[in-house]
Design a protein that fits this description.
Number of strands: 3
Shape: globular
Strand content: 5-15%
Strand order of the largest sheet: 2-1-3
Number of domains: 2
CATH topology of the largest domain: minor pseudopilin epsh fold
Distance between the termini: 21 Å
Number of helices: 9
Order of helices and strands: HHHHHHEEEHHH
Largest sheet: 3 strands, antiparallel
CATH superfamily of the largest domain: Iron/manganese superoxide dismutase, C-terminal domain
Helix content: 40-55%
Structural class: mainly alpha
CATH class of the largest domain: Alpha Beta
Radius of gyration: 17 Å
């Protein structure tokens, strides 16, 4: 499912963007990510970003045909009146869309193939990558997204972005992300962010990450 999923309704004025369906049942990620959190996170938080993005673009039909990746890759080209809204709301839509795809009830373990080789080359080992990624996710006081990204040469790096900023604005290829806003984990883990991140590794969808990495070649 593309992060820039479109509404195919026959309505005369369909919204430019729609909330993508989850690729699994609400309780599929149990016990690591609980069903109630997934429901609220997807149906309320993610939906709100999509709705507010459509509101921001309502007076700009020429932008409504663009993919979310196109909008976020060139923020300076956006009209100043809606630039901040598109970065915040569009970023929220894009980030969450990748986050859902990055998880699977059949996830966990370690990647293999070219992605595994690239991780070893960049970080020394998968264990070292996992340690550094986890540290980045746990260390921040404020709301943040932590990403595994690739530059245009395919080199991997770990980046963190506050609010709803994302790697696209820096010309990087987003591969894997963990949402460490409190709404992503508070119902189950309360203030135990480190416990949530440790559990999240058990549902990482390495096939999805590998597919994204393959597109950098």
């Amino acid at each position: 499912m593309a992060a820039s999923a479109r509404q195919s309704s026959a309505n005369s004025q369909p919204a430019a963007y729609q909330l993508p369906s989850l690729p699994y049942a609400l309780d599929a990620l149990e016990p690591y990510v609980d069903a109630r959190t997934v429901e609220i996170h997807h149906d309320k938080h993610h939906a709100a970003y999509v709705n507010k993005l459509n509101e921001a673009l309502a007076k700009y039909p020429e932008l409504q045909s663009k993919s979310i990746e196109e909008l976020l890759s060139s923020p300076a080209a956006l009209p100043e009146a809606i630039r901040t809204a598109v970065i915040n709301q569009g970023g929220g839509h894009f980030n969450h869309s990748v986050y859902w795809q990055n998880m699977s009830p059949k996830g966990g373990g370690e990647p293999d193939g070219p992605l595994a080789d690239a991780i070893k080359s960049a970080f020394g080992s998968f264990a070292e990558f996992k340690t550094k990624f986890t540290a980045a996710a746990v260390a921040h006081f404020a709301s943040v997204w932590v990403w595994l990204c690739a530059n245009r040469d395919g080199k991997l790096l770990i980046k963190d972005y506050p609010n709803q900023d994302c790697p696209l604005s820096e010309g990087l290829v987003p591969l894997l992300t963990v949402d460490v806003w409190e709404h992503a984990y508070y119902l189950k883990y309360q203030n135990r962010r480190a416990e949530y991140v440790a559990a999240w590794w058990n549902v990482v969808n390495w096939r999805d990450v590998a597919d994204r990495f393959a597109k950098t070649k």
